[in-house]
Write a structure and sequence with these properties.
161 residues; alpha+beta; Immunoglobulin-like; 2 domains; 4-stranded antiparallel β-sheet; elongated
């Protein structure tokens, strides 16, 4: 828009008619508000990718995940005068393991012996035929119980033939 000072100056110059025509034909642009640019006060935080391990996390180790104890017995079916071989894994190192045959003699458990697990938590125990002599033919559960709480069991079938 043309103010009064501009009109006087143009009149004095003798071109008022020309200036008014130009002002009507091409109005001055209306100023628009420009939002101020925000200035960050601190740099943005860097996002941690979801697959990254936080620096305080401790990666799992072989000792942090316990391996369940397992037990195997062979041969099965066990025939008279045969040596039974029992193998256990997943027990604690140096753990004493007691073996029993559940309900084998008159409905009571028969103690088969004890073994000590090695540094890797495994053991092998051979049970002589004389210990198994009073056991009737049938299906039984062989139990291994470690003194520190590890337990395992296996099926065992005996035969008198």
């Amino acid at each position: 828009m043309i103010n009064t000072k501009t009109v006087r100056a143009l009149a004095l110059a003798g071109i008022i008619g020309l200036a008014l025509t130009a002002a009507v034909a091409c109005p001055a642009p209306t100023p628009t508000a420009v939002p101020p640019t925000a200035v960050p006060t601190k740099p943005p935080a860097t996002a941690v990718p979801p697959t990254a391990i936080p620096p305080t996390a401790v990666p799992p180790t072989a000792t942090s995940v316990p391996i369940p104890a397992k037990l195997t017995a062979a041969p099965s079916p066990l025939k008279p005068a045969t040596i039974l071989e029992v193998k256990g894994t997943g027990f604690k190192a140096s753990e004493r393991v007691d073996l029993t045959l559940a309900g084998a003699v008159g409905g009571k458990d028969l103690a088969l012996g004890s073994a000590t697990a090695g540094a890797d938590g495994s053991f092998t125990l051979q049970v002589g035929a004389a210990i198994l002599e009073p056991v009737a033919a049938g299906k039984y559960t062989l139990n291994a119980k470690g003194l520190s709480g590890s337990n395992a069991s296996a099926a065992l079938e005996t035969s008198k033939k």
